[in-house]
Amino acid sequence: MIRTLLSGDLPRSRILSVLLIAIFVSLAAAPYLFPGTRSLDVAARVCVFILLVASYDLLLGYTGIVSFAHTMFFGIGGYGVGIAIARLEAGWGAIGAGVLAALALSAVLSFVIGLFSLRVRAIFFAMITLAVASFFAILASQLSDLTGGEDGLTFRVPELLRVRTNAYYLVFGVSTVLFLLLLRVVNSPFGRVLLAIRENEFRAEALGYRTVTYRTLASCLGALVATVAGALYALWLRYTGPNTTLDFSIMIDILLMVVIGGMGTMYGAVIGATLFVIAQNYLQDVMKLISDGAKGWPLLPDLFHPDRWLLWLGVLFVLSIYYFPRGIVGQLRSLLPGQLRRGR
Amino acid sequence: MKEARFDFVPVALLAAVALAALALIGTPSTWVTLTVAGLAMGLLIFIMASGLTLVFGLMDVMNFAHGLFIALGAYVAASVMKAMGGTLAGLGPAMLAAIAAAGLLGLAFERIIIKPVYGQHLKQILITTGGMIVAEQLIHVIWGPDLLPLQRPEALRGAFLLGDVALEKYRLASVAVGLAVFAALALTLNRTRLGLLIRAGVENSEMVEALGYRVRRLFVGVFVAGSALAGLGGAMWGMYQEAVTVAIGAQMMVLIFIVIIIGGLGSVTGCFVGAILVGLVANYTGYLAPKVALGSNILLMVIILLWRPQGLYPVGKS
After folding, report:
1. Residue % of chain B over a pLDDT of 70
2. Do B122 and A122 touch (CB under 8 A)?
């Protein structure tokens, strides 16, 4: 049963299994385990980001392409819901229409970008997506009649979702289902071809797989899931704006989560996103303690200033790429020698 | 490489764009002002972008942290200018300090960050992005999170009046510096032995290695020079905006990517033409249709790529 749910892709490490179960149980029972607005907010963020990072890992870890436009699709989802509710009414029909419109837009955009730039090389795709995403962010902040500009859109949600627990379980449920779906995708024959393309594109092409088609499909799929994640996030926050969805710093956050958690495994997304969101919310408190303790030393208080938490995660990111490119999950899995092949 | 038969079509395109704009704008004095502004913007972008495209052409390395050198140059220049009291005498030291600081950082960056990941594109993109995150935060640690003013010296403020045409002094100075940099680069690349090796390396680096030259060492030199130029460009751009924030690097990166994609990855000539094209189009559309101006760069890139998928001046290597 569990094996089927996880599509046969078991954690393959005792510590990892324990961690994953702990995360799942805490998230599933979050409204009861951690009462309080802040901790429930953290739990919802973890759910959304697990989904977002998993969909990004489909591109980066499984297909080997770097996109900087993932936040754009995240934003399209958020704005889809936001604009639909602001224009129509705070009902399920409007949400459905908004999500559908957002999904259609994401599909078309990712298809066009993929067609345009995936023929060439990974670097080209990365550069084009960066340019398009920044253009989209400018567009969203300029079309203020539609998007609310820099202020974003605050909107009402249907009656049912005004109870925070209900809203949370919507976020949790959709995230879980879509995550399992992604797990299914990467363990399907389609996912194997993606891996083959990542490992050796030339050989995959020689075996008769149209690599451009597969890459474009993967990029569309990733974009669609990111759109749903954006819609969920907007529904949870009851707000959508450039800073919560389109900002380049969120793209950086996603990259950090994928790499630190572990590229090329969906579980990396779970570990990475959980760790990151918790660090984002609680590391600052710890750093404030260190910073206060280091008063009087030169430079140290500045280095540990609570606003500099990204510095330390950045260092961790660079070290991860050098020393454990498979991230935390890869490290945990290779703790058991003989049972599996070692990382590249 | 391309001297044999220089491709004049993109240059003609520049002239065509300028002429079409003249017809659309109507008043010649406005057109001259806009053209000078476009040239100044384009040449400043060229100064920042030239190093990146050369580094890519030579060693197949794409540095996503290039914006960092731009930001550092701007910050160092702002600090030096402040220390010198914002006078014209401080301008030279400020620019030199920006160049030196960016160059040194470039050397360190190449050694620590880029050297271990040659030939692995995916890791290059990730690791240079990571380097940028860390360095941006360090800039915050050193200079603080606030916006830093970067005043132009008195002598570079204001404008000349030629008849009814207003020409901003600083823009003219930028055009002069940009042209000087382009001339120096073109001379080095086309007339010296070093330039010959670099061009040969761009065309086929393995062959140059086989002939006994160390492309690696050449590459470090080009990387440092490119970083130093980015520092200079950043300082000048900061002075153009009269303020410096950490975001300056990331903002310019987008423009720079568009420029080197338009020009053809690895081509300095293409980078030059592309930068001027982007600068001109941005200023013309800004005047003619402000709503479109924000997307003009992307639009321009799409049109150019539809016409020449490899950019204006494709480089031999695929």
Report:
1. 97
2. yes
Per-residue pLDDT, A64: 87
d(CA B170, CA B44): 12
Residue of A nearest to B290 (CA): A142
Q: Tell me which residue in A130, A142, A252 faces B257 most closely, judged by beta carbons.
A: A130
Interface of A with B in 80-119 (CB under 8 A): 116
A297 close to B (CB below 8 A): no
Q: Which of B121, B135, B144 is nearest to B60 (CA)?
A: B121
Q: Tens digit of pLDDT for each residue in A104-153?
A: 999 999 999 888 777 767 778 888 888 888 888 888 888 888 888 888 88
How far is the alpha carbon of B133 from chain A, nearest alpha carbon, in Å? 6
Cα–Cα distance measured from residue A58 to residue A67, given in angstroms and rounded to the nearest whole number = 11
Contact at 8 Å (CB) between A102 and A231?
Answer: yes
List the single residue in B with minimal CA-CA distance to A133: B254
Q: What is the value of pTM for the model shown?
A: 0.86
Q: What is the pLDDT of residues B164-222, one digit of tens each?
A: 777 888 888 899 999 999 999 889 988 999 888 888 887 788 888 899 888 888 888 98
Residue B234 identity: G
Instruction: Confirm whether the ipTM is greater than 0.90.
Output: no
Residue of B nearest to A135 (CA): B295
CA distances from B312 to A78, A247, B257 (A): 37, 31, 14
* pLDDT band of B316, cuts 50, 70, 90: low
A122 touches chain B (CB under 8 A): yes
Q: Report the residue of chain A nearest B127, measured CA to CA.
A: A318
* Strands B148-149, B159-162: pairing kind: unpaired
Per-residue pLDDT reduced to its tens digit, A268-309? 999 999 999 988 888 878 887 887 777 777 777 777 777 788
Which pLDDT score is estimated for A206? 93
Give me the CATH number covering residue B121. Answer: 1.10.3470
A269 Cα to chain B: minimum distance (Å): 16
Residues of chain B numbered 73-132 and touching chain A (CB < 8 Å): 113, 116-117, 121-127, 129-131
Q: Measuring CA to CA, how many Å separate B5 from each of B1, B9, B126, B304, B318? A: 9, 12, 39, 21, 20
Per-residue confidence (pLDDT) for residue B2, from 0 to 100: 46
Q: Name the residue type at position A268.
A: G
In this prediction, residue A336 carries a pLDDT of 61
State the DSSP code for B154: G
Q: How many domains is chain B built from?
A: 1
Q: Is residue B152 included in any domain, yes or no? A: yes
Please indicate, yes or no, if residue B221 is contained in any of the structural domains. yes
CATH number of residue A168's parent domain: 1.10.3470
Full domain range(s) for residue B57:
9-317
What is the rounded CA–CA span in Å between residue B151 and residue A24? Answer: 55
145-164 in chain B: CB under 8 A from chain A: 145
With a cut of 50, say whether residue B238 has pLDDT above it.
yes
B121 vs A122, A313, A314: nearest CB: A122
Residue B121 domain-assigned (yes or no):
yes
